[in-house]
Structure formats: C-alpha cells, structure tokens
Design brief:
The structure holds 2 protein chains of 2 kinds.
Chain A: H1 5-16, E1 27-28, H2 35-45, H3 50-53, H4 55-60, H5 93-103, E2 108-118, E3 129-137, E4 141-142, E5 147-158, E6 164-175, H6 182-186, H7 207-214, E7 219-223, E8 229-230, E9 245-249, E10 253-262, E11 274-281, E12 286-291, E13 304-311, E14 317-323
Antiparallel strand pairs in A: 1-3, 2-6, 3-5, 4-5, 5-6, 7-8, 7-9, 10-11, 10-13, 11-12, 13-14
Chain B: E1 15-18, H1 21-30, H2 41-46, H3 56-71, E2 76-84, E3 93-104, E4 107-116, E5 119-129
Classes of the chains: A alpha+beta, B alpha+beta.
C-alpha cells in the first residue's frame, strides 16, 4: 500500500538525513591480499590470466609480479560467513536506512548498477579497508518491480598507507514489491524459469479463435448475415449488428500495411528486435502480428507476406508472417 | 594485445559460460559473499526465485575476465561499469559478447553483454589501457 502524503513526507525527511553520511567507521578487510584467495577467485571465474597465477610470467608482464584481479577489489572487504545469518538489528547506517524503508513497506531490494575504478592493482601483502558513504537517495520512482527509492553508496578503498587504491559506486532499488514472481516459483527446481510469450486472455468472444489456431488453422471471423470480416473477434457484427457469426480460414496471403521495430524495453520471452506489423489480409481484414525471418531493415510497407502458424517452445501457437516466397 | 591492434567496432570472441550451482556458489564464496540467496536454494525460493542466483561480484569477475582474456596479461583495467538485469541461475548459460567502442591514446573501452535465457544479465563497460605498439 502506498503511504499517505503526510507519512511519505515524514519518511522522505528521514531519508534525507542519511545522504552524505558514512555508514560507519572504515571496515578493515580481515585478510591481506593473498595468493590462495586469488587462486580460489580465478577458479570460480575461469580466469587463467598469468598475471594473477604464474609468478614467473607475472614478473615478465607490465605488473612486474603477481597482482590480484582488479574486479576482486570488493572481495577483500566483504564480511564473509557472518553475512549468512543476517542481521536482526542494524549494525550500520546503511542497514538502518534499509530497515526504515522496509518498515514503511519498501521490503524489496535489488542491485541495479555498480561501477568500480582501480587506482592501482593490489599485490599480495596489501591490506585494504573500505569506507562507505550514502551518496544519494532518489525521489520515489515507479519501476517494473514496484515503486521505490534508488540508493547510491560510494565506497573508497584504501591501502595500509591510507592511499586510495580504488572506488566503487553501488545503486540499489528499495521497493514495495508490485507482484510475486509466479513464473519463477512454479519452475522445477534446478531449471531456470524461462518465461514464454505473454498469452492473450481467452474470453467468451475470442477463445474459439485461439482454439482454431491451436489446431493449426488461421481463422478470420465472418458475419453469417452480411459477410463482413472482423479481426479481432467480437460478439456482434459491426456492420449489421447480427450476432450470428462464423469464420473462414485465411489463406495467409497479405501485404504489410504498417510496422514498427521494437528494440527497447526488452522483455524476457521475446527475440529482439521485434517487427510489430499491421497486415492487410487478402480476404479483406487486418491483423496485428509480427514479421519474422526477415531483417528489420528489409521490412517495408506494401511488401507481400505469407502467414503461418508458429509454435513456441512451450507449445503456444500464434499466426506470424514472413516475406512471401 | 597491443593498442595498435585494436580498432573501434572490433568484436571480442564470444564466450559461453555454462551456469552450474558450483559456479554460482563457488563465485559467491570466493568473493566472501555469504548472502543466503547465493548459496541456499531454500532461501532463494523464499524470495520467489527458482534457484540460487549469481552475486554481483561474480558478474564483475566474469566481465573483467572476459575482457582480459582478449586483451592479455599486459592490459591494465582502469574502470568497470555494469548494469544488472535478468538473474543468472543454474541450468542456464550466459552468452558473453563484446565490442570495442572507443580507442584513443592507449586507452580502450569495451562494451560487454552477458545474456541468458531471460534476457540481458549484464550490460557493462570496461575501460583499460593497453601497451603501445603493434
């Protein structure tokens, strides 16, 4: 439930107090940069760079000796095993900020962006500390996950001499979840839940059309009284108001009336770019579909098209169009 | 790889990363990230996910490795930026591709995409310095 305007104003005043503040004292990484942890990292990342692994080759490289993978920067100051048990009470200002938002219904959290800069490569023996500042909190934003606030933290990594060795910004969205991800919950364990195409809702007036498509035919609704064709299907003829409606099978031949190419946003379950097309069927009505098997740059208004019943991997069928042979 | 070998528009060799539970859990632990959704399927399912998901440090590791596999041990990585999208889960494959988007004065910028069955897991940019010469 969104907050009342008064409550939201209070919340946002509280949030503003966090901006610019360190979340706590700098955190000293437990272990100095060391080769066993570098090797374990490289195993997991499939990284065989000799600058990280082979002392002789590393000596010959621009680095002059073994260095840690730069992207490992943050790993040196992670808290490790204690992260698994979670935190009942906030132990720093960032956790306190998240808790306040959770208590106001913004329970979801997701990392959206990160950037890291590497002032110098780390070598075995370097010890790294991290100081994290809450850099900014956005206005409330509407997102696909739900409404929420983007929080950006900035971490400064320093070595044993207090010199900066790198930095990181990290952006998270703290949000009120809009819906449960059902597709994921329904997936068999161990299998990623790959979403399919969004299916048309089937109702009293159009279910028959999708059922014919499932059988492999390409139907067009036709008024039995006056012969007018319609698409999409409807309960009453728009020409003569008859409710006596039947259908004919489309030949599939048509011409492209208009189209647009969809590149963004990219939803899971579709192959982008999508050519969304209005197709004039030779029988005399028009349908919205996609043009496939043709590069978007070759699609043009007036081109001859051929309809066919396409079947997705999950069994869903629908008519699509390709350039006529 | 030297700077003079690089041209804007050049594509990096693609890399397919088969996503196993070992890789996802191993990456999380190698980066000292014990957040439960990265190693405990039950905890992941309680959050509406079907399985454990790759942590961001592992994503960073793969983006960095993908670029330095191509650039070689004499490359110096200066900066990494990533935008995160569809989660990486066991059973899927992350298909990595990259394109050189800038090359000037020894500095090179590479745009990287890691795509899984859901869409783009990561869209990133890596800035690195390469040795002069050919």
């Amino acid at each position: 439930m969104p907050l009342s305007p008064e409550k939201k104003q209070q919340l946002e005043a509280t949030l503003r107090e966090f901006v610019g503040k360190p979340i706590g004292p700098p955190y000293q990484g437990r272990d100095a940069v060391n080769e066993p942890m570098i090797r374990q990292w490289c195993d997991a990342m499939g990284d065989t760079n000799p600058a990280y692994l082979d002392p002789a080759a590393a000596k010959e490289s621009v680095h002059g000796g073994i260095v840690a993978p730069p992207t490992m920067l943050q790993a040196w100051t992670m808290h490790g095993f204690e992260m698994a048990k979670g935190y009942d009470e906030p132990t720093n200002e960032e956790q306190r900020l998240h808790k306040i938002l959770s208590e106001h219904g913004y329970t979801g959290v997701v990392g959206t962006n990160t950037a890291q800069g590497y002032t110098r490569y780390l070598r075995p023996g370097d010890s790294v500390s991290a100081e994290i500042v809450i850099e900014s909190i956005s206005e409330e934003k509407a997102t696909a996950l739900g409404i929420g606030y983007f929080i950006v933290t900035r971490t400064s990594f320093r070595d044993q001499d207090g010199e900066e060795v790198g930095w990181m910004t990290f952006r998270v969205l703290k949000y009120i979840p809009a819906q449960q991800p059902q597709a994921a919950a329904d997936a068999p364990a161990g299998q990623p839940a790959v979403p399919g195409r969004i299916r048309a809702p089937k109702g009293h007036d159009n279910a028959w059309w999708w059922d014919r498509v499932d059988e492999g035919t390409f139907p067009i609704q036709k008024c039995n009284a006056c012969g007018t064709l319609h698409h999409p299907p409807r309960p009453m003829c728009s020409a003569c108001r008859s409710q006596d409606l039947g259908w004919v099978e489309a030949s599939g031949r048509g011409t492209l009336h208009s189209f647009t190419v969809i590149r963004h946003p990219q939803f899971p379950g579709y192959d982008f770019p999508i050519v969304a097309a209005l197709v004039d069927l030779e029988e005399g009505t028009r349908i919205v579909s996609n043009v496939v098997e043709c590069p978007p740059e070759d699609v043009h208004i007036g081109m001859a098209l051929e309809g066919f019943i396409h079947e997705d991997e999950d069994g869903f069928k629908l008519p699509l169009f390709r350039p006529a042979a | 790889m030297n700077f003079d070998d690089v041209q804007v528009g050049q594509e990096l060799p693609p890399l397919d990363v088969p996503l196993t539970a070992a890789l996802i859990v191993g990456g999380a632990l190698a980066s000292r990230d014990y957040t439960p959704v990265h190693h405990d399927r039950g905890a992941a399912q309680a959050q509406g996910l079907s399985d454990v998901i790759m942590n961001i440090l592992t994503t960073n590791g793969y983006v960095g490795r993908y670029v330095t596999d191509w650039a070689g041990p004499d490359a110096i990585v200066k900066e990494l930026q990533v935008k995160l999208g569809a989660p990486n889960m066991p059973g899927d494959t992350m298909k990595m591709t990259g394109t050189v988007t800038a090359a000037e004065g020894g500095d090179v910028e590479v745009a990287v995409i890691g795509k899984n069955a859901w869409g783009n897991h990561v869209e990133g940019t890596v800035k690195l310095a390469l040795p002069e010469g050919a």
